[in-house]
């Protein structure tokens, strides 16, 4: 049954956000494992026709610099040696990089990747320093306005 706030209830009675509401990812971490997780979430949403907004802050933004995007950005400390082994096995098996996964997501659907203007200033990054995957620069207020009623996920 429809919910007055635009949500619908699933068969389990839990609220569901309509598919036309975007998934909104705030990326803070610049490690390859977290960037890959964000890329997979974005690609999955795009494949389902769900729009995606990605907001790049701090170390994630730094990873999107034109000259750094294809570099190894390491893994989060909690990954440990075992996690590093798993990631290497996936790379050897031909898993696409997080940057390539995001390129594919953009080909699949509506994906907008914006750099945080405050993080740009803090890190001394110019828009011309960014990889073409990044669509532009915006502030946090614009990000929230674009998010609408969609979920916001912080990675």
Description of the molecule:
With 155 residues, this protein is α/β, with parallel strands linked by helices. It is built from six helices and seven strands, in the order E-E-E-H-E-H-H-H-E-H-E-H-E. The chain has a five-stranded parallel β-sheet with strand order 6-5-4-3-7. Strands 1-2 form a two-stranded antiparallel ribbon. A hairpin with a 5-residue loop joins strand 1 (8-9) and strand 2 (15-16). Helix 1 (32-47) runs parallel beside helix 4 (98-108). The two termini are 32 Å apart. The relative contact order is 0.22. Residues 1-5 have low confidence and may be disordered.
Give a topology summary.
Layout: E1 8-9, E2 15-16, E3 23-27, H1 32-47, E4 52-56, H2 58-63, H3 80-92, H4 98-108, E5 111-116, H5 117-123, E6 136-138, H6 140-147, E7 152-154
Parallel strand pairs: 3-4, 3-7, 4-5, 5-6
Antiparallel strand pairs: 1-2
Helix pairs in contact: 1-4
């Amino acid at each position: 049954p429809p919910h007055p706030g635009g949500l619908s209830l699933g068969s389990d009675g839990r609220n569901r956000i309509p598919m036309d509401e975007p998934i909104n990812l705030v990326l803070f971490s610049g490690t390859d494992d977290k960037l890959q997780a964000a890329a997979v979430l974005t690609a999955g949403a795009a494949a389902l026709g769900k729009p995606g907004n990605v907001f790049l802050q701090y170390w994630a933004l730094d990873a999107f610099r034109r000259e750094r995007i294809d570099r190894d950005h390491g893994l989060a400390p909690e990954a440990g040696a075992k996690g590093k082994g798993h990631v290497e096995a996936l790379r050897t098996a031909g898993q696409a990089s997080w940057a390539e996964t995001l390129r594919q997501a953009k080909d699949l659907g509506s994906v907008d990747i914006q750099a945080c203007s405050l993080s740009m200033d803090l890190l001394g990054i110019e828009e011309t320093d960014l990889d073409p995957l990044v669509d532009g620069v915006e502030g946090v207020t614009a990000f929230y306005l674009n998010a609408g009623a969609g979920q916001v996920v912080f990675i």
